[in-house]
């Protein structure tokens, strides 16, 4: 009896499942700019659920505006646009979308005594996309290498 009930509940839930939405990967600075919409007393937005779905009707217009600030694709070369404003690989088809990026972060400095060079190299990637309007995916990964200050006594 318990198994039959479980199967019936699963079948019922499967008929009520809707398509996935595209979400905006969590970024504290980006999310702060959406506070006006998220914490408005006239809406019932669940702000504790993160990441936010960027295609939510409440956030879609302001989200598009924020993502396009400072982007003027007519004044920059193809290489400059690919490095600073666009995805490295970006495929937009009617049936699917796909994007991929290389995410480097290279830092160098000196310790307070000025005797040692310190550095941190981070290499990362992000890959995402959609298939139809019912499935979306996103993954990212990072690897770090660095030299930090040696304490000499």
3D structure, described in words:
The protein is α+β, with helices and mostly antiparallel strands and 153 residues long. 25% of the residues lie in helices and 31% in strands. The chain has helices at 2-16, 28-32, 35-38, 60-67, 78-84; strands spanning 89-92, 96-110, 117-131, 135-147. Strands 1-2-3-4 form a four-stranded antiparallel sheet, with no helix packed on it. Residues 15-19 have low confidence and may be disordered.
Number of helices: 5
Overall SS class:
alpha+beta
**H-E string:** HHHHHEEEE
Distance between the termini: 72 Å
Strand content bin? 25-35%
Whole-number radius of gyration? 22 Å
User: What is the overall silhouette?
Assistant: extended
Helical content, roughly?
Answer: 25-40%
- Give the averaged pLDDT, no decimals: 75
Q: Which properties best describe this structure?
A:
alpha+beta, extended, 153 residues, 5 helices
């Amino acid at each position: 009896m318990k198994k039959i009930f479980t199967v019936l509940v699963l079948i019922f839930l499967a008929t009520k499942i809707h398509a996935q939405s595209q979400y905006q990967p969590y970024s504290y600075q980006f999310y702060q700019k959406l506070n006006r919409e998220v914490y408005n007393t006239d809406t019932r937005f669940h702000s504790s659920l993160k990441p936010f779905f960027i295609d939510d009707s409440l956030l879609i217009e302001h989200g598009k505006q924020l993502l396009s600030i400072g982007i003027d694709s007519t004044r920059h070369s193809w290489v400059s646009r690919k490095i600073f404003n666009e995805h490295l690989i970006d495929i937009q088809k009617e049936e699917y979308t796909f994007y991929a990026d290389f995410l480097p972060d290279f830092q160098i400095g000196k310790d307070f005594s000025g005797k040692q060079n310190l550095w941190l190299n981070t290499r990362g990637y992000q890959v995402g996309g959609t298939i139809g309007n019912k499935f979306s995916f996103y993954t990212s990964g990072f690897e770090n290498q660095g030299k930090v200050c040696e304490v000499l006594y």
